[in-house]
Amino acid sequence: MNTQTRIIKGACPHDCPDTCALEYHVADGKLIDVKGSATHSVTAGVLCTKVAKYALRTYHLTRVKTPMKRVGAKGEGKFVPISWDEALTTIASKLKSIAAEHGAEAILPYSYAGNMGMLQYGSMDRRFFHALGASQLDRTICASAGAAGLTATLGSRLGTDMEAFAQSELIILWGTNPITSNLHLWSRCQEAKRRGAKLIAIDPYRSLSADKCHQWLPIKPGTDAALALAMMHVLVRDDLLDHEYIAKYTLGFAELKARVAEWTPARAAEICGLSVDEIEALATAYGRTKKAAIRLNYGMQRHGGGGMATRTIACLPALTGAWREASGGLLLSTSGAYPMNLAYLERPDLMPRVDGKLPRMVNMNQLGEALASESAPIKALFVYNSNPAAVAPDGNEVLRGLAREDLFSVVHDIFVTDTARYADIVLPATTSPEHDDVNRSYGHYDIVLNRRAIDPVGESLPNTELFRRLAKAMGLTDPCFDESDESMIRHAFDWTHPSLAGASFEALERDGVLRLNYPKRDGFITPFAEGGFGTASGKCEFYSATLAARGLDPLPTYTPPHEGEDSELMREFPLSLNTPPARNFMNSTFANITELAAPHGAPTLQLNPVDAAARGVADGQRVRVFNHRGVMKLAAMVTDDTRAGVTTILWGHWRDHPGAEGFVNDLTSQALADMGGGATFYDCRVEVAAM
Question: Which fold has domain 160-332+528-549?
Fold first, then answer.
């Protein structure tokens, strides 16, 4: 008898701007395949290598299927199964005793974007920790510096419609590798290229995408603002400006003009490592092309001056009037487009106030420091949607903290991750086909619904149900802990907001995808074609009083990296370490799936031939890469894909990967960026020595 296959609409939950609409193919209650939805205009049925093999992840042999407790030393990864009742009772008892003895702020949740569905990312979990009065987590590890810089300039996180890039005549890929991190934008770039568009990549590393562009500009890490200032100098000098757009829709042009007069291409060239001719040509091409689109990504804002760099680059389209064109402008994020009911989902009003103060905030980039603190000790760590032993900077300090015997730690995950190996209790989580959710995007303008397609594997629970049960075990009685996932999905967005005019949840449920209602030109969303900036002035703010009030430069400027060439570390550690993501991983997610990890092999250190020769390093030779924070030992790859002075390690592997000793984040810093408390992963100096 033939088994009928059912198709259930879903959404990719991973940390990617594409947020693909999915089809879960199910037969006899089993997920047999995951395909892209051909009716979704953005992703058009095409999936990345990772998600195309999603069923492998759902049914992986090493998946956690039952609650477990630790029986070995922390870090050994030795556990035995226990019941959910025992797990919940143990956790509730420990949290109650810690709160009673040390205060609820001694409890710290740690989560991020392991699941981007709005419910799994932040709903019942936030309600739970808010009601406890636990420490708040400042979730800034990815995009906060850039978000702050963008908002200071444009007033919101909006940008060029991803689909419009296919019509662009010049595309600048600034600090981004879309083949790896934005596949469906890359397909639009390729279409534009076939139509005659020029593609330029600005990146210290010749990525897969940069290799396929017409030009690669190997900029020094953390110097992007200097390049943007010099571009503006040329635009003003050569009058490549849209004076009408500037007069109507911008603020502070006179002040900006005076500032960029100082930033000649010659001055910028000394800082960013490009030639004067390269800078002149880039600026001229940009100024003479109205349909010029910049795809800015988060790598370049992970430096000491990352927020200001983002702000500076974001000024460019307003000078040339590129925002007038649907296929012009700039795209960093569209996450600010969505009218989310976060206060409803997260219930911050549940947090207690002591002497008028809310519970303390802990920056997630400084987890190592927080776990080492004796003055404000953390006694319980609850990890979900993250793997901080792999992704948090200054990994050695993080591991020392996780190994503390007086730290009670719980991990809710699909696998025994690097972090879970240190947990006292490990809880089984669901994958996206096993729960309901609703997703926004930070790369396009569509809401995407995810419906449960199969029963949870083993005894797995979604985040929402886990924290419902924990709330009951802790004696929390607020009615909000009884709310169903379906109700939260229906209330996740403000359906009265103008961007949802004419839309409804019923339409979303029927189609699986819903496009936000923003002004359009040529069929594409154009947020700033006629101004409409979200700043206090309603204009693109070259001069920002908001930044001035915070003690920051109100005008675009260049802020050197913390560990730049002028730092005290330069003499001892002369190389800059660049750590872009590997193609088949999503941060550390998927790295344990053999079919995906195998093509990458063991981690390697990519070293420019000039730097290799200076250190006597041959291709394939084992080397030490080190700084004052840590050491990693791995094989060298001598290549001109990374510029001189920069060494590159593609990351995402777990710590126990054969072929390498140490870990890439053992080298990175807990220092914060200039805005938003952002991470500075790419602001890192090292030295390399042959072994």
Answer: Dimethylsulfoxide Reductase; domain 2 (3.40.228)
